[in-house]
Amino acid sequence: MQSRERVARAIHFQKPDRPPISHGILPSVQYQFGDALKAITDKVHEDFGWDLLPDLPKEKLPPMYKPGINTDEFGTVWQVPEGGRCGIPIGYPIAEDWHNYAAYKWPVFTAGVPKYRLYSGHMTGNSPDYYARGGWIVFFEQMQQLHGFNATLMDLAEDRKQIYQLRDDLLAFNMDWLDRWLALEYQGLHFADDWGSQTGMLVSPKIFRNFFKPVYKAMFDKVHAAGLDVWFHSDGNITQILPDLLELGVDVLNCQSSLIGLDNLRPYAGKICFRTDIDRQHVLAHGTPEDVKREVFTVFDAMGTPDGGIIACGSVEDVPLANIAALYEAFMEYHY
C-alpha cells in the first residue's frame, strides 16, 4: 500500500496495511546525533515526504530556533539557548496596556512547502508516495506571543474588551492565510495550540468554549469545506476539552496520552484518529528499549482499532539513540 492511501485509510478507519509513520525530529536532535540518527531513519518509510526535503542548516534556522535573541515576523522577540530547539518568547509587540495596538501592522505570510524539513515531512501535490500535510497554524499560542502569556491570561480572566479585538483580528489573519494554504494541493492542514499543563487546562473549559471554540469552528469548517482533513496538536492534560475537539470535527489529534491517561482516551478510539505521542517524560527519556517497545504497543492497542485510527509518531528530543531505534522498530513491527 502506498503512503497517501495508507494515511487516508488510517484517518478514516478504512483498514490500512499498517500505521503510517510521521517523524517528530527537531533539528537539535539531528545536530546531536548526526549520521547515527540518519542510519535509523533511513530504514523507516515515513509517509509524509520527509525524504524529499533536505535537512535544515544551522544558518537557516528560523527566529524561534536560531541561537541567541531573535525577532520573528510578528515582532515577537525570542530567546533561544540551543540551536534547533524552540526557544521562549521574551518580548511582545502588543503592550500589556494595549496602548500601541491600534498601530500594530500584521505580517503577510505565504503558504506551501518549506525549503528544508523541520520536525516532520511536508509536501504538496497528489503523489501516491506521500500524504500532503501542510500548515502549523496556531491561535492561543499566537495570542500569547503577540501580547504575553501573563497579560493574555489576565485579560481573558477579566474579560477585557481588547482581548476580543485581538481574537477577531487574529482570526481574520488566519482565515486569510488559510485561503493561501487551500489554494495548494494538500490532503490535510495542521493546527496547534498547547492547551494543557501537567495536570489540567491553562484556562477554564468555560473560557475555551465561549471564547476560543467558535474560532476553531470557523477555521476547521473552512478546511473541511475544501475537502481536507483537520489535524490538531495540543500538549498537556486536555481531558476536559476532548469532547469539544471531537464535536469540532478534528480528524487527527496529537495529544499527550501519558498525561491524559489511556483510560480517558479509549472511549475515543474509532471516533478520532490519533497521531501518537509516546511518553517522552519517562519512558522514552529514561526507559530501556524494551520499555519503549512495550509502551508503543500498549498505546497503539488502546487508542487504535482494527480498522485504523493511529498515525505512529513520537517526539525524540532528549531521548537516547537506542530508544529512538526501538521506537521506530516498534512502529514498523506493529500491525492491527
Principal-axes geometry comes out as: globular
Taking the alpha carbons of the first and last residues, their distance comes to 15 Å
CATH topology: TIM Barrel
Instruction: Please summarize the sheet with the most strands.
Output: 6 strands, parallel
Find the structural class using helix and strand composition.
alpha/beta
Q: What is the number of beta strands?
A: 9
Low-confidence stretches: none
Rg, Å, rounded: 20 Å
Order of helices and strands: HHHEEEEHHHEHEHEHHEHHEH
Query: What's the number of structural domains?
Result: 1
Count of runs of 4 or more consecutive helical residues: 13
Query: Briefly, what CATH class?
Result: Alpha Beta
CATH architecture descriptor name: Alpha-Beta Barrel
Note the main attributes of this structure.
336 residues, alpha/beta, TIM Barrel, 6-stranded parallel β-sheet, 13 helices, globular
What do these coordinates show?
The protein has 336 residues and is of the alpha/beta class. It has a single domain (3-333), classed as TIM Barrel, CATH 3.20.20. Helix content is 38%, strand content 11%. It contains 13 helices and nine strands. The strands form two sheets. A six-stranded parallel beta sheet has the order 4-5-6-7-8-9. It has a three-stranded antiparallel beta sheet with strand order 1-2-3, with no helix packed on it. The protein is globular, with a radius of gyration of 20 Å. The mean pLDDT is 97.
